[in-house]
Structure formats: C-alpha cells, structure tokens
Design brief:
alpha+beta, Multidrug-efflux Transporter Regulator, Chain: A, Domain 2, Multidrug-efflux Transporter 1 Regulator Bmrr, Chain A, 2 domains, 3-stranded antiparallel beta sheet, 43% helix
Length: 272
Amino acid sequence: MDNLFSIGEVSRYQNISKQTLIFYDKIGLFRPAYVDPDNGYRYYSASQLDYLDTILIMKRAGFSLSEIREHMQHYNTQSSLDILRRQMETIEGQMEQLRLIQSRLKHRCDQIESVGTGRGQIEQVAVEEVKAQYILAQEVESPWSLREISIATKKCFALAFEEQLPVFFQSGVIVPLDKVRQGRCTEAAWAFLLTEEGEKAGGIQELPAGKSVSTFHKGDYLSIGRSYQRILDYCEENAIRILSDSYEFCINDYITTRDESEYITKIMFYVE
C-alpha cells in the first residue's frame, strides 16, 4: 500500500521480529495504522517508525514495557526529562549493585587462587592476627547433620536476598569446640554467610579481630576430621590455648565445583 509499510518491512528496517510487533499490538503499545480486514495483515505509517524508535530506545535504556506504554500516552519534553532523570537514578543504583557483585566475585576468585592446590600449603597450620568480620548466621537444627546444615545455609541465602544484604557469596559453619574434641566435627551449630558491618537484619554477628590459628582442609566434608586433628595437635605441641568454637570458611565448595575432592575449607579458632 502507498505510504504504508508491511509488518515484514518494519521488522527488517528496525531489526525486530514480527512476533514482537504482534505482541506490542496486543498489549496496546504499538498498534498498526491499518489492518487489512480481508487477511489481517498489519501496516504501519512512516511516522510510526519514529515512534517505534522511541519505544526501542526506551527499552534499551531499561524501561519496562508498561512504563513505556504509560509514558507515551501523553508525553512531552518535560515528562520525558522527568522520566529520564528517574531512570538515571535507577541505573546508578543498578551500577552500584553490579560493582558490589563484581567485588564479591573477585574476592571469591582471589581466595581460590591464593589457597592453591599444593599439598604442602594445604597441610600447613598458621598462627595470625585476623581482622574483624561480620556474618549473617542461622542456627542449625538437631541432629546437626549435613541435611540440617544445608537447610540453614539456604535460609541464610534467602534472608540475604530478601533483605538485599551485601553478602560475599561465601558460606561457612560454626562447630562447637566440645564437639570438635569429641570427634564430631561435622555437627555444626550455625551456618553463615560473610557480610559487612552496619547491616541491621536479624542474625548478623561480629567475629572480632584477634589472634587465630588456622589450617585448610582439602577433600569432601566428611573427611574434615583429619584436618581438625592436625590443628588440635599443633595447638597442644605449641602450648596454644583455644578460646572459641571453630569457624569454617568454604573456599572451594559446591558453588564452584562438582568434584568433592576439590573442596577446600579453612578451619579457624581464636587462640591466646
């Protein structure tokens, strides 16, 4: 038809699928200027192509289809400035979230790479000063098996996502010292995620700065007892007094590998 474009032509010119144009028509966002009553073919005017440009640009800028539809019902320069400024604020918030996620992922990568896979490094015991850390913790229910630990960990993730807390994507558990001494090293009392200071959600605990003793366990979690024995023997041989329960930090776990023999867990106690 003269001065009209078929849906196929608009699809080619704007690099948009026919299915998308049909969907836009159905939701009242971008309707054709004319629909042939005999065959139902859709046709668009030249001026509508500019209108479609605006829709596609706004969509590229992150607006939802409902926001675009509402805005374009009665838009002018001022209303466009207002909505664009609001979107800039939204994008800035998204960028901040992405920068935070990027730093968390870098933290995870740095940890895995720094520990390495060398047997000698894994089997070392270290005494060092640690900085204060903050954890989002959830209690593990009896009988404190791996099943209950997994449930408590999932609760931590659910709470962190619900409260939009800046967690480090690193989980861990707290194992009571008396259970460690009894050889019940997998019966954790708490599961946790590393987070930051200043968050107000329930379950945030501070791990204070202080002197610590630590080692790394490589392998599946059920075999972690041998690494606990190594650190207990070291403390006894060097007259180091353990002051706290055990804090386990998952360095390499199910999030980063399916092979349990590659799991790496840092075991830490506060000592004097």
